């Protein structure tokens, strides 16, 4: 047990002596838990510190080893070169002594001869300076020389020397260049329909070293091969649409302007759009057969023209043979030629494919542009239970409202017809409002209105079936003080509560202020409804709470009435308002 643990245990014992005997066990457990947690955290911190210190020490030891290794390496190199120069210094000292001795003994001339012999031995002897240096330098020089030779060889450009019909044509990168050139020549010859289409070429290859830029392209090889033919050739521009050879032109300014006019038909002011043909159009300068030249205006008319292509019309609901012929601007007879058995009596089903013809530009134009537009966001529908309405009697508590979002998309068209759409950004500008529908859960009695769904703020129609409007509004024709809606219905037709509420008035029989037998129901928000000219009242009473769709009376002609109908009023406070604002549309 270390000092910290002894200290903690001591404090724990002191603390225990201060608390009551009832809480002693509880505080003992808390104290023990705290001490153990503190000790664990201390041990973890101690281990982390030791690990960091150990890592630093290991790194320092590694640096010391690297330093020692470098020192030994430099020392070894120094000892080798030191021994080399020390050996020659000793040899020089010994030679100088020997030369001085001979000069003193045999004279000056003998000393000079001895000095030259010594220098020859010191430089060119078996272990002389020059020989030693040569032994070290020669391998290095050889390696450098070898690398230079390899570099020079790899830097050279090798190509195939092409000979056609015994004549040198030029250098090509590989055999495919000649094969492609043969196909180009075949297209140029076949276009003219001349007798030269039977010409044959014989070729051979040799590998050779060439300089930079010496190799020829496919079209250059084709030009040189055409010059071998015994036919009239001229310089011009071959027009190609993708790989299709269209003919040779003297110039192509008119074609260029015609192509721009075609593209201009599809261009707009949108700075993000790209407008191009779906095929590559190129003009290749070179040597061409004289018979292959065409008038530029003829090619301009061709690329500006339209061609008839087969396509299919997909039948939709309501289509008929005559209707389809009208849509596609073709006669029944023309359609029957393309669709054997098709006539004016042919049954048409949804999804049927009818073969038709359609005009299409000779050159298709692809347009891609960024477009900004607004899209609706569908609202969600939430259903809640309503135990004040009968089963099947639903009401929209909150009308759903679609939201909107700003959309930026890349849209592609071919000849003005959309082929793809890639949405880049969607930004919500208006959030949708959830539609809330209260679903009736009250068990339906036998005498109740049929199930329906009513919009928010709307009542249900008080008379079901085929009840029709007779007159409504203020001072309607024939009703100087008319302030309600007359709904025509047969005698005895059930009348239902237009909305849930409390019955506040019931009048049975008599004049009833002109309303005859009637019922008044008070709803929420100070709104009340009156049901007048009834023939009789159902089993209801004043103060009763009724549910929307509950039977309250029957259609009659009591009071100031000229026929069987229901006089329906809506009152806000004591003011009668137009009931049609509170009722859903009804035919």
Report, as a whole number of angstroms, the end-to-end distance. 96 Å
CATH class of one domain: Mainly Beta
Q: Number of helical runs?
A: 10
Structural classification: alpha+beta
The quaternary structure here is single chain
Please mark out the parts with pLDDT under 50 across 5 or more consecutive residues, or reply none: 472-479
**Mean pLDDT across every amino acid position:** 82
Q: Characterize the largest beta sheet: strand count, sense, and whether it forms a barrel.
A: 10 strands, antiparallel
Radius of gyration, in Å, reads 54 Å
- β-strand number: 26
Could you tell me the strand content as a percent range? 25-35%
Second-tier CATH architecture of one domain: Distorted Sandwich
Shape: flat
CATH topology of one domain: Glucose Permease (Domain IIA)
Helix content: 25-40%
CATH superfamily of one domain: Glucose Permease (Domain IIA)
């Amino acid at each position: 047990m270390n000092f910290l643990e002894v200290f903690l245990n001591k404090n724990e014992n002191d603390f225990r002596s201060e608390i009551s005997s009832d809480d002693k066990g509880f505080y003992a457990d808390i104290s023990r838990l705290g001490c153990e947690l503190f000790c664990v955290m201390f041990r973890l911190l101690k281990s982390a510190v030791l690990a960091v210190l150990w890592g630093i020490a290991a790194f320092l030891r590694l640096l010391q080893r690297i330093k020692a290794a470098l020192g030994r390496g430099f020392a070894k190199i120094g000892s080798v070169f030191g021994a080399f120069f020390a050996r020659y210094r000793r040899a020089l000292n010994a030679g100088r002594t020997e030369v001085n001795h001979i000069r003193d003994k045999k004279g000056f001339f003998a000393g000079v001869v001895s000095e030259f012999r010594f220098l020859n031995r010191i430089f060119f002897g078996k272990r002389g300076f020059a020989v030693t240096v040569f032994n070290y330098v020669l391998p290095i020089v050889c390696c450098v020389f070898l690398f230079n030779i390899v570099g020079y060889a790899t830097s050279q450009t090798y190509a195939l020397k092409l000979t056609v019909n015994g004549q040198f044509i030029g250098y090509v990168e590989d055999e495919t260049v000649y094969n492609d050139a043969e196909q180009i020549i075949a297209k140029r010859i076949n276009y003219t329909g001349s007798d030269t289409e039977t010409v044959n070429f014989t070729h051979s290859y040799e590998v050779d070293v060439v300089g930079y830029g010496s190799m020829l392209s496919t079209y250059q090889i084709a030009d040189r091969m055409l010059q071998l033919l015994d036919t009239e050739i001229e310089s011009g521009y071959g027009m190609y649409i993708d790989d299709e050879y269209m003919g040779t032109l003297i110039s192509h300014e008119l074609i260029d302007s015609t192509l721009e006019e075609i593209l201009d038909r599809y261009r707009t002011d949108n700075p993000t759009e790209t407008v191009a043909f779906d095929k590559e159009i190129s003009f290749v300068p070179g040597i061409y057969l004289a018979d292959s030249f065409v008038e530029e205006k003829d090619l301009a008319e061709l690329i500006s023209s339209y061609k008839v292509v087969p396509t299919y019309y997909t039948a939709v609901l309501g289509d008929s043979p005559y209707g389809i012929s009208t849509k596609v601007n073709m006669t029944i007879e023309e359609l029957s030629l393309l669709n054997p058995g098709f006539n004016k009596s042919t049954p048409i089903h949804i999804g049927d494919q009818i073969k038709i013809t359609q005009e299409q530009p000779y050159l298709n134009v692809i347009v891609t542009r960024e477009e900004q537009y607004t899209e609706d966001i569908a609202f969600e529908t939430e259903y809640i239970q309503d135990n004040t309405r009968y089963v099947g009697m639903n009401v929209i508590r909150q009308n759903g409202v679609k939201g909107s979002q700003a959309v930026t998309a890349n849209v592609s068209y071919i000849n003005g017809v959309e082929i793809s759409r890639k949405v880049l950004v969607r930004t919500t500008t208006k959030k949708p409002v959830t539609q809330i529908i209260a679903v009736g859960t009250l068990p339906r009695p036998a005498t109740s209105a049929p199930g329906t769904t009513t919009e928010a703020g709307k009542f249900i129609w008080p008379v079901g079936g085929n009840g029709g409007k007779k007159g409504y509004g203020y001072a309607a024709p024939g009703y100087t003080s008319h302030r309600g809606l007359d709904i025509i219905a047969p005698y005895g037709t059930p009348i239902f509560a237009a909305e849930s509420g409390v019955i506040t008035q019931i009048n049975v029989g008599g004049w009833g202020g002109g309303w005859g037998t009637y019922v008044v129901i008070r709803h929420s928000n100070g709104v009340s409804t009156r049901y007048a000219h009834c023939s009789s009242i159902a089993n209801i009473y004043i103060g009763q709470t009724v549910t929307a769709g509950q039977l309250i009376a029957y259609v009659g002609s009591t009071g100031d009435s000229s026929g069987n109908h229901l006089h329906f009023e809506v009152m806000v406070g004591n003011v009668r308002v137009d009931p049609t604002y509170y009722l859903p549309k009804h035919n």
